[in-house]
Amino acid sequence: MLLSLRSFRVLLTPLTYIHVGQVHRSREQFFQTWINLMTEYRRAHGLGASWFFTVNLAERKDNHLLVTHIDELRRAFQYTKEKHPFRLDAVVVLPDHLHCIWTLPPGDPNFSMRWNLLKGHFSRAIGKGERISQSRLKRRERGLWQRRFWEHLLRDQGDFNRHVDYIHWNPAKHGWVNLVADWPHSSFHDYVARGIYPENWGGGEVFDVRAGE
């Protein structure tokens, strides 16, 4: 049985978790409260910069590898967080790519090393058989992931909020669901549980950003 991204709950430590159970009258009010609380939270926990990422499979057409092996992907995230900590603020996994936001520790901005570790751990859990280019063969690389990924440093709270919205809206953007809530492999459900989004959020709206897809 496939595990939904709700199984990532043990990995997710978004800013919203600092006041679990607090109900806000509007999402805008929540984010304003968030801004105020996070100044102290970052100081207390020594948090660094937050980054938005898009990571794609090498072969994207008709490739459902990430959702077929969602449990292996979850373990790869867990393994990487244990070796080199980061905070996972939001995440969505589509069949052929994923988006997420990480907040890194201060003085430890090496997200490339973390992604290499995560990709490698996932690849080792997947049986061989994918098409591998000659250049990858020479480097003894697997052919599951694109070598490069999209990263964007989140400049301020507004930028952070827009990218959180984009992450959660992404399955609807690509036509996998009509309602955002119908896609299981997303931290959207955790945000709904904490009163940030209503269950019917995102219907008929567009939340686009430059995302490197």
Structural summary, described in words:
- The chain has 213 residues and is α+β, with helices and mostly antiparallel strands.
- It has a domain at 50-193: Transposase IS200-like (Alpha-Beta Plaits, 2-Layer Sandwich), CATH 3.30.70.
- It is built from 7 helices and 4 strands.
Keywords:
single chain; 213 residues; alpha+beta; Alpha-Beta Plaits; 4 strands; 12% strand; disordered N terminus
Main structural class: alpha+beta
Task: Predict the CATH topology of the domain at 50-193.
Answer: Alpha-Beta Plaits
pLDDT < 50 stretches = 1-7, 13-25, 37-46
Radius of gyration equals: 17 Å
Largest sheet: 4 strands, antiparallel
Distance between the termini: 29 Å
Relative strand content? 5-15%
CATH superfamily of the domain at 50-193: Transposase IS200-like
Order of helices and strands: HEHHEEHHEHH
Strand order of the largest sheet: 2-3-1-4
Number of strands: 4
Percent of residues in helices: 25-40%
Can you tell me the overall shape?
A: globular
Mean pLDDT: 77
CATH architecture of the domain at 50-193: 2-Layer Sandwich
Number of helices: 7
* CATH domain class name of the domain at 50-193: Alpha Beta
What is the fold's blueprint, element by element?
Elements: H1 27-45, E1 50-56, H2 65-68, H3 70-83, E2 87-93, E3 97-103, H4 111-124, H5 134-139, E4 150-153, H6 157-173, H7 188-193
Antiparallel strand pairs: 1-3, 1-4, 2-3
Quick rundown:
By secondary structure, the protein is of the alpha+beta class. Helix content is 38%, strand content 12%. The protein has a domain at 50-193: Alpha-Beta Plaits.
